[in-house]
């Protein structure tokens, strides 16, 4: 699907609503009130300027005419935020969480489902390099300068697959003075231990470097009562990064970054939480106490996997990046070359129980090369511009296998023997595996420009266009085989059981497909400075997410899905108030998404396709206030109305499948008007930080954050059994430190109210297929209350 700027501007999609009118009225009222306030004598109290790179230039946050949230590397370190999903709690309208093997990243209710063939709706960029796979976002945070979250389509400057927004991560850079630190931390509840060390400084008159490494271990928070099984999920991670900065001449500089990471996870934090008595009996055939674990607590009864296929996730990743910048007169030329690769192996117990019933193992390898060239004009002229070209080449190899061990559930196995005429067959006869191999290549080439016309000192317009070409090809093969031996079952019998038997598996098949897409996207932005401290903007934008192939296709009926597109509008207000002591940013947004890519679980596998339309609308507010020299308030909140505008063939819930009122193969259920996944009506946070001197040489720092989330729909079916009810969590930090910054000791508490929550769930395997596992669900539990002590020495 291709969008043009002329079509977008003529669109009748965006109609002024009371919601928008109310925001305008509020913005005008706040602006008028701020103008009327007397200037406060700040006595040197003010907020530090936040510098961001959201526009491909280093500029102040308050000068960027888009909605964005920024979290500093300092806060990430202080609160021991180790992964993106923890950071999301501080970002209104942002959800990041693991789902069975991938990270799901959603902004304003828009994201990508659980399929390796999906590219992300939210693009992740690290030091200007695009990371196209969700797994890239799972690396532990290490030595960061800041994380910027850009909300809404970012299709001009960031381009491919930023239909919902972009996460722009900047790592800490080499310094020209010698410095470093060593930090150790211990968390009591999970027995987590981490050690981080960094050193930076000049290596010569023109070269400086930075080397940082971290090791992190922890136990899982799930208490697995199955004998010999691991608690879920324990981790053992190591990561090292080296960066060199070389000022080759007065006009030419280079920056080289090399990074390697190893991430090992054992066990799982998913468990059966809801199940009928019959399901509990079948699921508990290997553990008489299984029923005692069927609840929303932290006890699970999950086997340790089939021999040679333990429940674990191991991955290695490498990043090499070279950035060159040349000053050509007043113009800046920049080249960003990136190479990334990872290999991971993962086995899941996808029945989530004590029986050896169904497991899934995957080996995935991904390599990506990207090259971007940029030219930026000088700032301060009547006409300013940024232009560039971008190229990406990526290779994905995926080998997966689903094992169905009917012998692990003898009651069901015996019933199937009788159904298919094998009354004398030995146990294990219909145990089988479905193996799949995928090789996918993709290329993207795009050219873009963004032009700023400074019409007056106070009013400017920004116009951007991006033309992109995406090409993909895939080779896929599925093979069904018997574990027990080919002599017992013919191919025809296998097809009869795994195809006509209704379990969704088919015998051998393979195919090759290719596709090509062309897209024209862009944005039109009007920006007006009400005065030196207040700016308002209006932004129109379009975007797309590339189509592709269903790599998880085990049903041979959903091989390909189409691209999706968006038309969006955003009206914002950015204010510096109280003589620099307060910063308040507000935005109203509305977006219409077409041909939305969806992934739904249907008893034995995920099926992908394109929903008709979704619509999102809402308000976001971020603020920071220096209340006094010692006290700072910060936070943000959002109101969101995100729903399927038209989706008449959505996936069925367990109950509707069992009562026969819904059949996904013949039409599904009408989800039009239903809320989207991970799109609570309201969420927000507020934090307070207090700093004071204890002595001439020692300081005390106190901090607390309150995080609230309204009800969250988790499953794409809208199943009421998979809605996370509203909750409030509290994080806090107490620290003492030397006034000169040489040492600090801190105590960090997370989820101090000990709320039991989940971030993913679905109906369990075969729960709606009438085989005895009816009305059962699994949920993926988040961490309970934790306490950590940190100690740092800096030099």
3D architecture notes:
The N terminus is likely disordered. The chain has a 22-stranded antiparallel barrel. It has a five-stranded mixed sheet with strand order 3-9-10-7-8. A hairpin with a 6-residue loop joins strand 1 and strand 2. By secondary structure, the protein is mainly β. It has eight helices and 45 strands. The protein has a single domain, classed as Maltoporin, Chain A, CATH 2.40.170.
CATH topology heading: Maltoporin, Chain A
Principal-axis shape equals globular
The overall pLDDT, averaged over residues, is 85
CATH class: Mainly Beta
Annotation field: number of helices: 8
User: Strand portion, in percent?
Assistant: over 45%
Global Rg = 27 Å
Concise synopsis of the structure shown:
By secondary structure, this protein is mostly beta strands.
List the helices and strands and how they pair.
Layout lengths: L4 H5 L8 H19 L14 E2 L6 E2 L7 E5 H6 L5 H4 L6 E6 L2 E6 L2 E2 L10 E5 L2 E3 L12 E8 L13 E7 L7 E9 L4 E11 L4 E12 L4 E2 L9 E14 L4 E15 L3 E5 L2 H7 L15 E2 L4 E2 L2 E2 L1 E17 L2 E19 L8 E19 L6 E22 L5 H10 L12 E23 L4 E24 L8 H10 L8 E23 L2 E12 L2 E2 L10 E2 L2 E14 L4 E13 L2 E5 L4 E5 L2 E14 L4 E16 L7 H5 L23 E12 L4 E12 L2 E2 L9 E2 L2 E12 L4 E8 L7 E6 L13 E5 L4 E9 L1
Parallel strand pairs: 7-10, 14-18
Antiparallel strand pairs: 1-2, 3-9, 4-5, 5-6, 7-8, 9-10, 11-12, 11-45, 12-13, 13-15, 15-16, 16-21, 17-44, 19-20, 21-22, 22-23, 23-24, 24-25, 25-26, 26-27, 27-28, 28-31, 29-30, 31-32, 32-35, 33-34, 35-36, 36-37, 37-38, 38-41, 39-40, 41-42, 42-45, 43-44
């Amino acid at each position: 699907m291709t969008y043009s700027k002329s079509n977008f501007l003529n669109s009748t999609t965006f109609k002024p609503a009371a919601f928008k009118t109310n925001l305008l009225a509020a913005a005008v009222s706040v602006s008028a009130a701020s103008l009327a306030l007397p200037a406060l004598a700040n006595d040197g109290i003010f907020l530090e300027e936040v510098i961001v790179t959201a526009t491909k230039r280093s500029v102040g946050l308050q000068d960027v005419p888009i909605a964005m949230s920024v979290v500093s590397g300092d806060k990430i370190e202080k609160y021991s935020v180790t992964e993106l999903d923890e950071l999301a709690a501080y970002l209104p309208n942002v959800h990041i969480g693991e789902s069975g093997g991938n990270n799901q990243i959603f902004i304003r209710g828009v994201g990508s489902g659980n399929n390796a063939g999906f590219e992300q709706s939210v693009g992740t960029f690290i030091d200007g390099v695009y990371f196209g796979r969700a797994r890239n976002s799972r690396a532990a945070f290490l030595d960061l300068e800041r994380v910027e979250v850009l909300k809404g389509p970012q299709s001009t400057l960031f381009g491919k697959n930023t239909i919902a927004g972009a996460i722009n991560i900047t790592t800490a850079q080499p310094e020209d003075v010698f410095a470093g630190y060593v930090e150790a931390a211990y968390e009591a509840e999970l027995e987590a231990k981490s050690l981080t060390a960094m050193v930076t400084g000049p290596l010569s008159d023109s070269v400086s470097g930075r080397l940082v490494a971290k090791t992190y271990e922890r136990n899982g928070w799930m208490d697995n009562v199955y004998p010999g099984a691991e608690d879920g999920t324990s981790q053992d991670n190591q990561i090292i990064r080296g960066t060199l900065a070389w000022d080759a001449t007065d006009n030419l500089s280079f920056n080289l970054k090399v990074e390697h990471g190893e991430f090992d996870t054992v066990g799982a934090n998913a468990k059966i939480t809801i199940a009928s008595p019959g399901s509990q009996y079948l699921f508990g055939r290997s553990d008489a106490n299984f029923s005692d674990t069927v609840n929303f607590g932290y006890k699970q009864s999950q086997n340790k996997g089939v021999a040679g296929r333990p429940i674990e996730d191991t991955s290695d990743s490498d990043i090499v990046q070279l950035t060159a910048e040349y000053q050509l007169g007043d113009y800046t030329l920049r080249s960003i070359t990136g190479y990334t690769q990872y290999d991971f192996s993962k086995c899941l117990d996808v029945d989530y129980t004590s029986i050896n019933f169904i497991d899934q193992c995957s080996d995935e390898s991904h390599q990506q090369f990207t090259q971007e060239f940029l030219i930026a004009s000088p700032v301060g002229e009547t006409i300013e511009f940024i232009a560039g070209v971008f190229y990406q080449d990526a290779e994905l190899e995926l080998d997966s296998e689903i094992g169905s061990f009917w012998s692990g559930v003898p009651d069901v196995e015996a019933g199937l023997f009788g159904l298919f005429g094998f009354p004398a067959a030995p146990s294990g006869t219909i145990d089988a595996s479905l193996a799949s191999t995928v090789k996918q290549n993709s290329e993207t080439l795009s050219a873009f420009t963004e032009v700023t016309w400074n019409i007056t000192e106070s009013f400017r317009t920004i116009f951007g266009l991006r033309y992109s070409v995406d090409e993909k090809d895939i080779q896929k093969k599925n093979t069904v085989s018997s574990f027990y031996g080919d002599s017992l079952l013919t191919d025809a019998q296998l097809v009869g059981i795994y195809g006509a038997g209704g379990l969704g598996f088919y015998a051998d098949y393979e195919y090759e497909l290719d596709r090509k897409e062309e897209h024209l996207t862009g944005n039109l932005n009007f920006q007006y400075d009400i005065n030196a401290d207040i700016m308002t903007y209006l932004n129109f934008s379009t975007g797309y997410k590339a189509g592709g192939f269903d790599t998880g296709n085990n049903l041979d009926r959903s091989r390909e899905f189409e691209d999706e597109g968006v038309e969006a509008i955003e009206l914002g207000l950015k204010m510096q108030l109280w003589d620099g002591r307060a910063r308040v940013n507000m935005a109203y947004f509305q977006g219409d998404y077409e041909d939305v890519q969806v992934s739904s679980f249907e008893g034995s596998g995920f099926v992908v396709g394109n929903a008709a339309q979704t619509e999102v609308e809402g308000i976001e507010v971020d603020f920071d206030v220096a209340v006094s020299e010692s006290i700072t308030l910060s936070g943000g909140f959002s109101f969101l109305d995100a729903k399927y505008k038209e989706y008449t063939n959505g996936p069925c819930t367990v109950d509707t499948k069992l009562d026969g009122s819904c059949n996904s193969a013949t039409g599904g259920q009408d989800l039009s008007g239903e809320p989207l996944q991970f799109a609570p009506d309201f969420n927000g946070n507020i934090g307070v930080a207090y700093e004071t001197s204890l002595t001439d040489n020692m300081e005390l720092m106190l901090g607390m954050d309150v995080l609230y989330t309204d009800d969250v729909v988790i499953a794409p079916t809208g199943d009421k059994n998979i809605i996370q009810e509203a909750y409030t969590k509290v994080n806090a930090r107490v620290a003492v430190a030397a006034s000169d910054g040489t040492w600090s000791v801190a105590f960090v508490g997370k989820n101090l109210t000990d709320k039991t929550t989940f971030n993913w769930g679905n109906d369990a395997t075969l729960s709606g297929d009438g085989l005895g596992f009816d009305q059962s669900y699994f949920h993926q539990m988040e961490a309970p209350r934790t306490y950590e002590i940190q100690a740092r020495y800096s030099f």
